User: Fold this.
Amino acid sequence: MAFNPIVDEDKCQGCSECVDVCPVEVFEIQGEKSVAVNAEECLGCESCVEVCEPGAITIEET
Assistant:
């Protein structure tokens, strides 16, 4: 099964918590917002979802 991390740019505050917690480096900060630059590496662990206080990240199963 594959997973697709989605960042809601309107909610993202650019705190980089998702960048720090992701075990496979899916995210990086670009222009003060998080971007899923390596989405294909997502394990679906949802660590990023748990640390994202504004709730800007969701994980879809594909």
User: Anything to note?
Assistant: The mean pLDDT is 98.
